[in-house]
Amino acid sequence: MPPKKEAPVVVDIESSDDEGSVEVVRRVADDDDRKPAISNAARIAAIAPPPPPPPAAAGDGLESRSFWKAGNYAVAPDMKLASDSSLLEYARVHPKFLHSNATSHKWAFGAIAELLDNAVDEIRNGATFVKIDKIDILKDNSPALLIQDDGGGMDPDGIRKCMSLGYSSKKSNTTIGQYGNGFKTSTMRLGADVIVFTRAIRAGRATQSIGLLSYTFLRTTGQDDVIVPMIDFDISGHWTEPIIYGSKNDWSANLQTILEWSPFASRGDLMQQFEDIGSHGTKVLIYNLWLNDEGIYELSFDDDEEDIMLRDEANQGSATSLNKRTAAVQAHISYRLRYSLRAYASILYLRKFTNFKILLRGKPVDQYIIADDLKYSKVVSYKPLAAAASKEVAVETTIGFIKEVDHVGICGFNVYHKNRLIRPFWKVTSDGSSKGYGVVGVLEANFIEPAHDKQDFERSSLFIRLEAKLKQILSEYCSVHVILT
Fold first, then answer.
1. Which of 115, 262, 363, 483 is 20 to 30 A away from residue 254, measured at CA?
2. What separation in angstroms does the CA of 220 have from each of 16, 45, 84, 87?
3. What is the pLDDT of residue 26?
4. How many helices (H) does the chain have, and how many strands (E)?
5. pLDDT digits over 342-353, tens only?
């Protein structure tokens, strides 16, 4: 439950890459501190905003729509609070931290993959689809990115945990999420603002909630804390009933802030967003999408009506005339996944879904199982030397030649973690080496931890030993099949 307006709860974190973005301050404890919904250490404030500050100085607004420049703005000196021995310490997180935190995603598709992971994790709660699409914002006719699933949804407490920093309830042997940071980093990497609509049924009670995480709002109004307005409704009865935690004025203030800074101008427009969610599910709408350095949207929705492209990556291979070999390389999935979301999503998960679909711009993504498409394939078993307390498990690597070996100089291992692709076409041989030409491998390495952006692995001793083992597997395979190369 959100705290009362007069005693905001803000995020507790350990560190920040952005110097000066975190300041330890104090506040008086009150009875609300004993409520379970707000007793967690790491929380983003879900409160009515404070009175608006004086107008920002010229140049302090969100002029730069390029992601890599969006963190470059002046921070006003923080207000000094009086010291009192009866006050409790807590950490204040400046909105700049949202940007510096999101820079962990160097690649926009990596951010989209995080949001797809959330939907895939909902398969255990009955999800049958996740759809990714572009919609037009009526307020300014700008594009927005929509990601929606029909999973279990989030109740009021769940959406607050989702939008808090560092909180995760998904640490398990099967779910992909574990750090409690993916939603914030991924949405803020793709656009300046995100609004979430979710419905859930818990213990016989049906609820729907709306939460707004708006970098534009926080910067433009000069906030020095991360404030996330949220509103909740009980929909168990015959009509929609607002859930009031503090006062009606607080609830109304949250609603007004959402209406002012979201793409929706009225409460009716907000409620309309639930019509296609059904009894449970979640809709994430990312808007004010980032631009590249040329002032053009990073994500291209116009080059292919059934795909979403990374504009800058796609342009790198857009030469007018290509020789046969270069054209074959650029047509291969190992190249296309760099700029085509459809290509990347097709190999993002190791095992085929049975009752779940990824719908990209209205068309299902056909999963491509690389191991099923190899010639002269061989399965090599490897037992990593993990920590003494760990259970010894065999890791199976499927290795073989790609079908296009005569035309495409592609090689490398596709390494998955808990069904999710982490390193595609990882070339373990040294640069310039021709060993392994046309040879591709696939394995699931659950014994090593992925980095926070899930685009690489932590370079631990286990990872280094895995790299050496894959070099050995490649060398032994090539020595047997050298006649084929």
1. 115
2. 22, 18, 32, 30
3. 34
4. 12, 18
5. 999 999 999 999
Task: Encode pLDDT of 441-463 as tens digits.
Answer: 999 999 999 988 899 999 999 99
Asked whether the beta carbons of 206 and 200 are under 8 A apart, the reply is yes
Q: Compute the mean pLDDT over every residue in the chain, rounded to the nearest whole number.
A: 79
Nearest C-alpha neighbor of 194 from the set 252, 147, 156: 147
Q: Which of the pair, 95 or 474, is modelled with greater confidence? A: 474
Tens-place pLDDT, residues 208-235 = 999 999 999 998 998 888 889 999 999 9
What is the pTM (predicted TM-score) of this model? 0.81
Task: Give the residue ranges of DSSP H helices in 122-173.
Answer: 156-162
Looking at the structure of the chain, the number of domains it has is 2
Beta strands 191-202; 395-402: pairing state: unpaired
Residue 23 lies in a domain: no
Residue 154, domain extent: 95-300
Q: Do 211 and 159 meet the contact criterion of CB atoms below 8 Å apart?
A: yes
Q: Which two tokens stand for residue 226?
A: 């991360």
Question: Hunting for tokens 């005569």 — which residue is that?
Answer: 406
CATH code where residue 159 lies: 3.30.565
Q: What percent helix, strand, coil does the chain show, rounded to 5?
A: 25, 25, 50
Question: Residue 121: which of 391, 454, 381 has the closest Cα?
Answer: 454
Does residue 105 sit in the same domain as residue 212? yes
Check pLDDT > 80 for residue 175.
Answer: no
Residue 67 falls within a domain, yes or no? no
Query: 289 and 422 share a domain?
Result: no
Do 144 and 255 have their domain in common?
yes
**Three-state SS sequence of 348-377:** CECCCCCCCEEEECCEECCCCCHHHHEEEE
CA dihedral 465, 345, 110, 168 (to 10 degrees): -80
Report d(CA 197, CA 282) in Å as an integer.
6
CATH of the domain at 462: 3.30.230
Within-domain flag for 461? yes
